[in-house]
Amino acid sequence: MSNDVLVFVEFADGAPTKAGLQALGAGAALAGQLGGQAVALVIGSGSADLGKHGAARTLVAGGDAVSSYSPDGFARIVSEQAAATGAAAVLASATPMGKDFMARAAAMAKCGLAADCTELKAEGGKPRAVRPVYAGKALQTVEAPGALWATLRPNVFAEISSDGTAAAENVTVSFGPGDLKAVVKEIVAGVKGKLDVAEAEIVVSGGRGLKDPAGEGKQNWENLEKLAETLGAATGASRAVVDAGWRPHGEQVGQTGKTVSPKLYVACGISGAIQHLAGMSGSKVIVAINKDENAPIFKVADFGIVGMVEDVVPALTAALKEAISG
Amino acid sequence: MDIIVCIRRAPTTDARIKPGADGKTYDPAGVNYDISEYDKFAIEAGIALKEKHGGQVTIVSVGPSAATKELRTAIAMGCDAAHLLTSDAQHDAWSLAQVLAGKIKELPHDIVLFGWSSVDNQSASTGQMVAELLGVPSVSVAVALDVADGKATVDRLAAHGNRERYEISLPAVVTCTKGLNKPRSANMKGIMAAKKTAVPETPANAPADGVAVFKMDPPPPRPEGKIVGKGAEAVGALVKALREEAKVI
Ligand SMILES: Cc1cc2nc3c(=O)[nH]c(=O)nc-3n(C[C@H](O)[C@H](O)[C@H](O)COP(=O)(O)OP(=O)(O)OC[C@H]3O[C@@H](n4cnc5c(N)ncnc54)[C@H](O)[C@@H]3O)c2cc1C
Ligand SMILES: Nc1ncnc2c1ncn2[C@@H]1O[C@H](COP(=O)(O)O)[C@@H](O)[C@H]1O
Asked: For the structural domain made of B2-203, what CATH number should be given?
């Protein structure tokens, strides 16, 4: 085993994603502690000089076999490069893609996976990871007997900028398109450019306090969208409103929804049930707007406003617009 | 169709979790259990496939003997048989995947269903690992599933609300999430059937964890929050705090 760290860097539309660069930053920091180097792995045609973001080498696996996403195809490439580099740690971001194929890749390598980690460090020359479990009610510190395979929660690790260069080195893919077990055939829905709540830096969430968007709550949800737009935020929701069919389930934040850790989380008309808090209490700064001063959300909120969403949300949007433009 | 559903007995989502005396696992005092939330979507998907194509739904689970309660709940919902592989210890996904794949290989299986993530261990890995050990295709986080002619068409919820469509040959592993269906509750007939169905228990003999827990800590407490004011008049103070104190905007 080497002291190197292999990092799968996710690309979208030909450029590395923010979460991918955060994983690379974390990998470079860990490699530094281990006395090795960070090796970036890109799958597909995208290429950038990842030397500017902490990579000492950039491996690119391309070709027909990986023109579309395939869980087993991506897993195979990552496990092969893990073996080829003898990496002490193999990392990817815990995005929907990373969560999907890294488990399969780790199994190919006969290793476990430390999923959705929020901290990485070398102790006694070995990598260790910290991961929230029980929806953030506890933190596990884990280690592996061999290489540590881990996915990293978006928005927790810092991107780095460095002045190195790491020109793309093409690596061979040992299989053809016909060997793949599952390949994306088509994208059947989705909103282009819509921020995913799990990856956004700012999240504005609405709860039952906003009322039915098909009835008296219509204006409240429009106001919430405007607030999100002003902040460049993704919109989230409590389970109560998802179950009521007011919002899509991809927006649900909480123990049985998405876990988010943005720099700013704004909860509007959300009471703060334990399952909701479980999904968002890792946020750096929490703001709550609720008419009930005893709502449990205020226990975790850094800043609270006791008031009606009808009044406070549009006023906040206006004040933010003024502050941002001024 | 031979349908297998892997389910996990997990602490209920309202459980208070505190590190236990060993510093590695939680203190079970006062903790209640239920079928891990997303596994209910997998059970429902299994029963729906049986209703459409015929066949049977078999539950496989690794857990303590007490988990027979959750297995019987699954039978009461409409599953036909259940196997409990007993272990009182906590295992990571890689250890569990090896136990589950070993058992599944002994059973006829056209499709193996999982929850996309457990609510407690939250590794979102077990299903894909089992698929790799069985050498079959996997699609995770399914929001639509249809089976015909030895193939499954599966829609997976990916980033940005995108749905990726896959067509995979059976046998295959599919992990299920909210949006796929509405899990039914048990009816009286099911509850009676569950009472009469034997749930065989065999020791899991789980191999070592792939990632071992070195320690478990409570999360750092959040500092006490403050109310900046009441009503729309308070937004000025809030914006100022976000800019100058928290520096997030
Ligand atoms: C197994 C299980 C899993 C769960 N998982 C999740 C999960 O992942 N995520 C999740 O969110 N929940 C989850 N829940 C549900 C959770 O227990 C709560 O029921 C839910 O979070 C409540 O949603 P809410 O805060 O929107 O609604 P409520 O609890 O009804 O709160 C509405 C809030 O709005 C305030 N309000 C009302 N009108 C106004 C107004 N005009 N202006 C300002 N404030 C107003 C009220 O004071 C109240 O605090 C789960 C529950 C179970 C049993
Ligand atoms: N002990 C277990 N027994 C059976 N199935 C399990 C067990 N643990 C996890 N699973 C299955 O694997 C899924 C994902 O779990 P996890 O990888 O822990 O997030 C769960 O939703 C279950 O379907």
From this structure: 3.40.50.620
Residues of chain B with C-beta less than 8 angstroms from the C-beta of A18: none
As for the ipTM of the complex, it is 0.95
Asked whether residue A141 is domain-assigned, the answer is: yes
- Residue B34 in contact with partner chain A when CB distance is under 8 A: no
| Distance from C-alpha of B114 to C-alpha of B98, rounded to nearest angstrom | 15
| A80 and A160 fall within a common domain | yes
Q: Ligand nearest B60 Cα, by number?
A: 2
Q: Within an 8 Å CB–CB cutoff, is residue B166 touching chain A?
A: yes
Question: pTM of the predicted model, to two decimals?
Answer: 0.95
Cβ proximity of A206 and A270 under 8 Å? yes
Inside any domain, residue A195: no
- State the span(s) of chain B assigned CATH 3.40.50.620: 2-203
CA-to-CA separations, A112 to A106, B29, B129, in angstroms, rounded: 6, 29, 9
Whether A326 shows a pLDDT value over 80: the answer reads: no
In a domain, A13, yes or no: yes
Confidence band, pLDDT 50/70/90 cuts, at residue A190: low
> Ligand 1 centroid vs A208 CA: distance in angstroms?
6
Per the DSSP assignment, residues forming a β-bridge with B4 are: B58, B112
Residue A273's domain comprises 202-325
pLDDT digits (tens, 9 = 90+) for B114-131: 999 999 999 999 999 999
Q: Which of B15, B141, B230 sits opposite A307 (nearest CB)?
A: B230
**Measured at the alpha carbon of residue B18, what is the angle toward residues A205 and A91, in degrees to the nearest 5?**
65
Residue A47 above 90 pLDDT?
no
What would the pLDDT profile of B67-82 be if each residue is shown by its tens digit? Answer: 999 999 999 999 999 9
**Of A209, A182, A172, nearest in space to A84 by CA:** A172
B219: left (phi over 0), alpha (psi -120 to 50) or beta: beta
Number of structural domains in chain A? 2
Q: Encode pLDDT of A111-167 as tens digits.
A: 999 999 999 999 999 999 999 999 888 999 999 999 999 999 999 999 999 889 998
Give the distance from residue B65's alpha carbon to the nearest chain A alpha carbon, in angstroms.
Answer: 22
CATH number at residue A256: 3.40.50.1220
Q: Does the pLDDT at position A193 exceed 70?
A: no
Q: A187: part of which helix (H) or strand (E)?
A: strand A184-189
Phi and psi, residue A155, nearest 5°: 70, 10
Instruction: Clarify whether residues A208 and A77 are in a common domain.
Output: no
